[in-house]
């Protein structure tokens, strides 16, 4: 059981209150992740800033989903996999993509599969990717900019995934229908 508090706008440190109000305005409620991050106004601000920056990269909605969910699943994040499943549905991402990411199966296009594989390599190898792996990524239609944008997405996901592990962040009501658990072997 975690000892991290999930803040509301009222209970949050003073410098986090406007950030949680921003979340409230954007989502209609304060997501539990944001409530957990609020104990550190700097971390909550960093997360919100990185989220805004990553969503404005050159990736389309499907590619954003591939990067986010590849990292969430690899990090075994009990909160972010359902949250990004709900987000993907709200963005009208193809169900086949959503399910392939959640279930660790082949993606429906070679280009998205290449993005998934490059993201996994970067995560698993702590930022190391071979020339051959980069060449395969570029041959699928991506460029150097995309490699750097994966790193931006990873920066956002490290904040949320690691916080959720420590906080044992409870799922928000809207995410419960997409609950996810890691496979037990």
Short description:
The protein has nine helices and no strands. It has helices at residues 17-27, 32-37, 41-55, 61-74, 80-90, 95-103, 110-124, 131-139, 144-167.
Count of domains: 2
Topology order in helix (H) and strand (E) letters: HHHHHHHHH
Give me the CATH fold name of the largest domain: AhpD-like
Question: End-to-end distance, in Å?
Answer: 24 Å
Helix content: 55-70%
Report mean pLDDT, rounded to a whole number: 96
Description of the molecule:
The two termini are 24 Å apart. The protein is built from nine helices and no strands. With 185 residues, the protein is mostly helical. The chain is globular. It folds into two domains: 14-54, no CATH class; 59-178, AhpD-like. It is 62% helix and 0% strand. 39% of the residues are buried.
Structural topology:
Blueprint lengths: L16 H11 L4 H6 L3 H15 L5 H14 L5 H11 L4 H9 L6 H15 L6 H9 L4 H24 L18
Helix pairs in contact: 3-9, 4-5, 4-6, 4-7, 4-9, 7-8, 7-9
Observed structural traits:
185 residues, AhpD-like
């Amino acid at each position: 059981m975690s000892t991290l508090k999930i803040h509301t706008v009222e209970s949050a440190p003073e410098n986090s209150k406007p950030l949680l109000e921003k979340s409230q305005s954007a989502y209609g409620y304060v997501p539990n992740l944001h409530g957990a991050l609020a104990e550190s106004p700097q971390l909550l601000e960093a997360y919100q800033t990185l989220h805004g920056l990553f969503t404005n990269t050159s990736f389309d909605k499907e590619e954003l989903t591939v990067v986010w969910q590849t990292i969430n699943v690899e990090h075994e994040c009990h909160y972010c996999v359902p949250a990004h499943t709900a987000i993907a549905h709200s963005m009208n991402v193809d169900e086949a993509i959503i399910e392939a990411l959640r279930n660790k199966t082949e993606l429906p296009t070679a280009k998205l599969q290449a993005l998934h594989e490059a993201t996994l390599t970067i995560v698993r190898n702590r930022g190391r990717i071979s020339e051959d792996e980069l060449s395969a990524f570029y041959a699928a239609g991506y460029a150097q900019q995309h490699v750097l944008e994966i790193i931006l997405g990873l920066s956002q996901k490290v904040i949320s995934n690691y916080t959720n592990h420590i906080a044992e962040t409870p799922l928000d009501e809207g995410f419960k229908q997409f609950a996810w658990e890691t496979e037990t072997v």
